[in-house]
């Protein structure tokens, strides 16, 4: 149970930090967080762990915080700012990919000890990179759209949980579907289905856990 408890604590730390950056820096802090989280998530996702009886990737928590950040922006500042944040995250992801590909082309010095590790982390697998980019922009845009629809239909604050959970859980399902369909195209159906289900299961839990933090963010008055 070590990984499960550590994972839960890690989730609480991530969600607390997003509230902290919002409290201190306001809307700008959420923009920065989204750019940072997309980069870190694409690094963490390379590590797999055993948890809840399944093999899962590690980046799902911080990737989920990007959805929480756009929901906060959508709730408190409107759809325009939420969309702006989505494109900021998308540009950040593309910029990191390009810059690291160029960095890997430099011939390392004889005394270098990290080139191999960097190559392992950032060596581009086109199919996976395309899947990641497509999943991010499609699911995040859908999240902004469905959140706005739910907010218009259920504007009362007693439906905050519906706007947050409904938009994020459905968007994360779409994210998993798009990513797995592109990144793991050609895999045997049974293997593909197992990856898809396990990936969404973890994202679903993350979406559920962020609910109280969304309520706290609603009450925060940034400095």
UniProtKB/TrEMBL annotation:
Belongs to the vitamin uptake transporter (VUT/ECF) (TC 2.A.88) family. Q precursor transporter subfamily. The lineage of its organism: Bacteria, Bacillati, Bacillota, Bacilli, Bacillales. InterPro entries: YhhQ (IPR003744). Pfam families: Vut_1. This is Probable queuosine precursor transporter. Involved in the import of queuosine (Q) precursors, required for Q precursor salvage. The chain crosses the membrane at residues 6-22, 29-46, 52-73, 85-104, 124-148, 169-189, 195-217. NCBIfam families: queuosine precursor transporter (TIGR00697).
């Amino acid at each position: 149970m070590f990984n499960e408890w550590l994972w839960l604590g890690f989730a609480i730390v991530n969600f607390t930090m997003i509230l902290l950056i919002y409290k201190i820096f306001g809307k700008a802090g959420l923009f920065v967080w989204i750019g940072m989280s997309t980069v870190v998530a694409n690094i963490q996702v390379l590590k797999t762990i055993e948890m809840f009886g399944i093999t899962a990737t590690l980046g799902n928590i911080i990737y989920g915080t990007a959805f929480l950040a756009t929901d906060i922006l959508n709730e408190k500042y409107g759809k325009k700012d939420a969309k702006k944040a989505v494109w900021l995250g998308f540009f950040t992801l593309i910029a990191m990919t390009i810059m690291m590909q160029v960095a890997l082309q430099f011939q390392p010095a004889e005394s270098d000890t990290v080139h191999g590790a960097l190559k392992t982390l950032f060596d581009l697998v086109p199919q996976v990179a395309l899947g990641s980019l497509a999943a991010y922009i499609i699911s995040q845009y859908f999240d902004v759209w469905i959140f706005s629809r739910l907010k218009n239909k259920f504007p009362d604050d007693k439906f905050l949980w519906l706007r947050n959970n409904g938009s994020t859980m459905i968007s994360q399902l779409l994210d998993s579907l798009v990513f797995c369909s592109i990144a793991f195209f050609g895999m045997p159906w049974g293997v593909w289905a197992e990856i898809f289900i396990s990936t969404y299961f973890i994202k679903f839990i993350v979406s559920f856990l962020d609910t109280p933090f969304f309520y706290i963010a609603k009450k925060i008055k940034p400095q």
